[in-house]
Amino acid sequence: MSAASDSRTPAEAVAPPPPAAWKRALAKARSNPTTMVGALICLAILLGAVLAPWIAPHDPAEQNILDRLLPPGGDYPLGTDQFGRDILSRLLWGARISLSVSLSAIAIAMVIGGAIGMVSGYIGGRFDLITMQVMDVLLSFPSLILGLIVVALLGPDLVNLIVAIALTAIAPFARIARAPTLALKERAFVEAGRALGFSHTRILFRHILPNITSEVMVMATLWLATAVRVEASLSFIGLGVKPPTPTWGGMTRDGFENILDSAWLATLPGLAILLLVLGLNMVGDGLRDATDPKLRNE
Amino acid sequence: MSAVLEVDGLRKHFVTRKGFPRPKTVTVRAVEDVSFRIAEGEAFGLVGESGCGKSTVARALLRLTEPDAGRVLYRGEDLRTASGAALKALRRRMQIVFQDPYSSLDPRQSIGSALVEPMRVHGIAEGAAARRRAAALLEEVGLPPAALDRFPHEFSGGQRQRIGIARALTVEPELIVADEPVSALDVSVQAQVLLLLKELRQRRGLSFLFVSHDLSVVRWFCDRVAVMYLGRIVEEGPAGRVLADPMHPYARMLRDASPVPDPARRAELPRILGEIPSAANPPSGCPFHPRCVHAMEVCARILPAWTPAPGEGQGGVACHLHG
Prior knowledge:
The complex is a heterodimer. Chain A has 14 helices and no strands. Chain A is mainly α. In chain A, α7 packs across α9. Chain B has a single domain, classed as Rossmann fold (3-Layer(aba) Sandwich). The radius of gyration of chain B is 21 Å and the shape is globular.
């Protein structure tokens, strides 16, 4: 140890790891009340979904013909539907579908889209041009339409739903991963790596990937909200997970049949979708603002 | 003396196609025809204005951009045709130090990791041994071993440049290509880094290709120097001769433009004609003739041939005045 480091306290002598950009972003987001409210909403819904088997008062598929279309209150806190199934339990179980479908779809889209964007930006040239034009074609479809086409082609089930939603989100991830890659590959440290004999794979995964993850993660939060919406929309038009599995979109549609005399049937799942999308957008916006260099110094 | 590096007829053109519907092809002749040799343990300077192609030469030598033509021999081995393992082995022999210390280090990689990684890639050292070597390298460039666990943003520009030098040394190169290694640094820091480079050169017997636009730095550091203009070497020779008594009018102009710390010489203002022409549309004949005060009729027509300077090992010049 040199004299310079001896004069420091032991805690300082061991340099702290640099705050990764997303950690800095998290700290920044924490100071923003909107982000915190959003995070709270998301956390509550996540908790409800994870704990559904234990906290749901009823079996979500259990039909009780004598208790049809009961208004909220009593044995059924949020009422029952036309088959006498408990709405609260169905909402909790439905959150599982909503979250698991959108989370896995976005995870897939993030990995595939991110890889496409990073590699395409790094290789550049004609390859990049063609890849990005394919992505532009994908981008030109509205998410819902693209999801609809895929589910209609493959048939509605859980896996196909995830594939469909992932497909709609690949192009934006490719775009968001490509832009910083283009800037990074011009930096001297990438050239230094090449001069040192590093392989392209090593440069891509050891030096470029760590520098783009924060941007891609922020994007993922924002796209999670879109995925929730697309999943709900597909379920609403009957292309989601099949009944009797409870989904928020499916519940909203079923509730429509009795909307005049039992308004809560359609309103409550709709509200659940609204809350989750709102929460995710609030968190995503907060993270984006926190990582945006133009806003960083405010 | 045997040559470490021999460059013969190096050329690099950048071609861009612009416009729609009829794209126009623009060819930037960054490096037109460059030849030189660097002897064992020699520091060879490459000077010239911004945009004359000197950095492109440096990058093309290391194949960071692929040269279009010419031969680059490293101790007789052809760098341009090498690939795979042969290229990797050659890259170990020659390393580069970059101009901008703020972009030459990966912001997400600790200094220790940045120094150990090349050793692992080349199978030089692993684990604790590699870390010991990294710490020793840091000490050699004047940084405490505690820097190993720190990250680039915790260092100043001069310190980062030292780290960049240490990283280049991890693979034990014999030749260092220094591309404007001090021009992004404060003057006080410049001196320290230059001293470090000179010290390393002596201790390790390194050869240098030193690219710079700063004549005083080159005069102090280099044994031989080549003056580049629009992608060509216009004069080459021992640093003392070329920088004190240049033969080529352009080299003379550069010398006169470079400040000399002597109040007696203050009155002589250099004569500078015009700007460096675009490398996309170079002048005919001698590339310097539109700016040259001695321009003759022949200069606009014929590219001057290389003429050896009088005396043994005094280099040469490409100018009709001396042809």
